Amino acid sequence: MSEIRTMLAETVNRLLADIVTAEMLTKAEQGDWPEALWRAVEDNGLTMPLVSEKNGGVGCDWLDAMVVLHGAGRYSAPIPLAETILASWLLDRADLQPPMGPMSFASGAENAELQFKAVGTNWQISGTAERVPWGSTVEHLVVLAPMAGELRVGLVKKGCFEVTSSQNMAKEPRDTLVFNNAPVELVGVATGLPDDSGRLFGALLRAIQIGGALERSLHESVLYVNDRTQFGKPIGKFQAVQQNLAQLADEVAAVGAAGTAACAVIDMALKGQAEVDMVFRIAAAKARASEAAGKAASIAHQAHGAFGFTYEHILHFSTRRLWSWRAEYGTGDFWAEKLGQQVVDIGADNLWLHMTATD
Q1: CA distance 39 to 46
Q2: Of the candidates 189, 205, 231, which is a domain's last residue?
Q3: Range of the domain at 30
């Protein structure tokens, strides 16, 4: 692990472990914005790890940023930390300087792309974006739309679009936004990124966050089975319980490996170091993470028994996010189908070379 990656991991784990409590999570679900948490992550540079130094960021790569995204998932951070990291990176890829404050990102609804329009020297955007994470909460929104063969990136300020509020199962905001010739503050072109970058990199965010939530579920389960006694000994001593937790540990490891592989390939591809397929690796990561989410939540709740379903126990903050995140930016079935089609297109003779390509 690189020095900066170690530093980021230590910082995010220290901050989130200290600040994110069950009480804070409950208040956030009731609509209380956790200002102290946001200030802490922003002041420590955790919101822009992927942004270049010239645009006010840290200049890390995706493998470095992964530890922050993983921490956001592990501690169920009730702020748009992951979304701000991606939104700020998209702006940086378009050579635009990201603003401070919480951000999210949006692309068009299914089969209905957002549309940029030039008005003199200014820009406007129109269209509808569905289930935008934290859309009603953030100060700025990064909007994405293909235009003339390029991926156009814009920055829209809060209050310039209509909002229909909704939530996912974890009670995180997932809002429908309507843009009607909304003014765009900054516009640029994100070089080297595909048209569907919103869904693609959104899927990667969720795969990494799922990995963090899986790890927390395993941690809580191990603590519980070693504390809960039955027939005169901890239930963690029973072979069936140990086998279930071993399977949960396998899921944690598999999802972590898939996310790491995807981030490594992105870093290589964006630096021009390899002819590799980002879509292939991200699809694999999200498909594997979505599959693991359901299995792991079931095992964790089985280990906790009825106690794990009580609102007072912290486990449900992780498992409700697992159930929510597995379907966001494409279900496991969606990405598995994409992956399968790519495998068919690649062909049997070239599949192994494609999967192991590093240079």
Answers
A1: 10
A2: 189
A3: 3-189
- CA neighbor of 190 nearest in space, from 84, 280, 89: 89
Q: Which amino acid is at 273?
A: Q
Digit-coded pLDDT (tens) for 120-131: 989 999 999 999
Residue located via tokens 């990199």: 201
Residue closest to 143 by CA, chosen among 175, 173, 103: 103
Strand positions, DSSP E, 196-304: 229-230, 233-234
Rounded CA separation 210/294 (Å) = 11
Q: Are residues 110 and 53 in the same domain?
A: yes
Strands of the chain, DSSP E = 103-106, 115-119, 122-133, 140-147, 150-157, 162-164, 174-184, 186-189, 229-230, 233-234
Cβ burial 44-74 (10 Å sphere, 16+ → b, else e): ebbbbbbbbeeeebbebbbbbbbbbbbbbbb
Q: Are residues 172 and 39 in the same domain?
A: yes
Chain centroid to Cα 44, Å, comes to 20
Alpha carbon distance 60, 9 (integer Å): 13
The residue from 164, 189, 214 where one domain ends is 189
- pTM metric for this prediction: 0.95
Residue 81 phi/psi, 5-degree rounding, is -70, -50
Model pLDDT for residues 234-284, shown as the tens digit of each residue: 887 889 999 999 999 999 999 999 999 999 999 988 887 655 688 999 999
Instruction: Answer yes or no: are the C-beta atoms of 57 and 48 closer than 8 Å.
Output: yes
Distance CA 176, CA 135 (A): 8
Q: What are phi and psi of 123, to 5 degrees?
A: -130, 150
3-state secondary structure of 188: strand
Task: Write the DSSP symbol of residue 167.
Answer: B
Same structural domain, 239 and 310: yes
